[in-house]
Amino acid sequence: MEARLFSFKEEVVPPAILYRFIATFISIWKLRVSAKSSRLMIFTDSADVKIDGDHDMRFDIQRNRFIVSLIHKDNKSSIIPTIASTAQECLTHAITNISNFYFSVSGDSACNRDLPFTIQIGIPCGTDLCFFDHTLSAKEWICPEHKTKHKTNDVSIWFADKLHTKDDRCTENCPGLDKVWLDRQPEDKHLGRLAAKLTNEDTRKIYIRLQEVDPALQWNIINESSKRGGFDIKINALYDWKKSSVFASFKQLQQSLNDEDIDIHKLCQISREVKKEFNQPREKLQLRPSISNTQKLPDHIGNQTFQLGIELGLSVVEMQQIENDHVTNLRSQTEEVLNKWRILPEATYEVLAKALHRLQLSSVLSYLTYEEDLEEQMEVGLAEKVKEGPQEQVEVGLKEEVANRIIHDIQNSQILDYMITHLVISSDDRRRIEQHAGQDDQNRALLREVIKRGEPTYTLFIDALRTVDTQI
Ligand SMILES: [Zn+2]
Ligand SMILES: [Zn+2]
């Protein structure tokens, strides 16, 4: 489940306006029908709508808050990102229009006025939902109230790449990015995409406008220190602006493009998905690429390594380090980029394929076999998990060969009991797992299920391993 909140700046919001939101949204999407009572899912302060066969959305009114949750029928890691980002845009647009109508008191033009609400992203924290501002760009957030650390990559899905448009063109009356996006900080990935769409000269012009201290001198220094010229200079300049600003925003980027008469719709383009046609089923695309698959790629990537690394989600700083570690060896740079990326929680064949498409390296896709490496996936996943968890609860050495030991050594019946009690798997799932003949195969099926589902099944599984008497 994902939640998002429109929190109104006025302490007291006229109830009429909140109900108007619900009325509008149930005219955009279809009300959900309860499977049990076959009644429409609309109540005094909430309503459920159906987005498509897999996704539902719920609206809740709580005082001056309007809470939106997006739910996938299986689990949250299956939410299709473009569905979340499209719903976000649509909701923000409608809420802005309705609010402008209700709150309009002064004569200033609608686009300059501040939105009468703030947008926050909800994250399950203990038994509650806690909220952080949508402009937060860090990968981690510590809830000030409960002092709990959360990864933010799951919830950033509301700002995932937007849907692809025909020939990557904006609509005729496209005003550029909306206000919610303009207030955000570009991720390194966005700077990489923009760098690829600008000439060296255009980058220099906007850098001179954006950078506050000694821009001309800084530009020369960046030129001298960028080893490979071309893309390196452009990304280093854009990143230099981001790191030296207190809060670098898309708004500042758009302003500088505007001032230099450069098409601002380049920003729309970098917020959209690339056109993609996959000839693989979705389950395969969701797998973590195997080592043997990524090892085939460095021979075909050439000098686009820096760009590929950022597009895959590595930071500019990580890329600068990799570049320094292998100064003259481009192939080892590419290898290190892929090795570093492959163990991130979000690494899948789909992410890799999209990145290659965007870099116009689609021909490289033919070297992929989309195989899975189950033991290794589990090891990587568990290692991640162990790093997050409280150390004293975990035996040292869990990372090594842990998946193998799980497969060969555990008695899964107690683990399954535990998981059923905690409602993360159903008795149907259990039957499916237990239909495999041997203990090893059952354990393999269980692991596959856990990997496929992600959170919260993962955490519960680890808890089960710790609680139930095993030697792991
Ligand atoms: Zn909290
Ligand atoms: Zn546009």
Automatic annotation (TrEMBL):
Coiled-coil ranges from the UniProt annotation: none
Q: Which SUPFAM superfamilies match?
A: DEATH domain (SSF47986)
Provide the GO biological process annotations. regulation of apoptotic process; signal transduction
Q: Tell me which CDD domains the record gives.
A: CARD, Death
| Death domain ranges (all copies) | 297-372
User: What SMART domains does the database record attribute to this sequence?
Assistant: DEATH
List the InterPro entries hit by this protein, alphabetically: CARD, DEATH-like_dom_sf, Death_dom
> Which part of the chain is the CARD domain?
391-472
Name of the protein in its database record: Death domain-containing protein
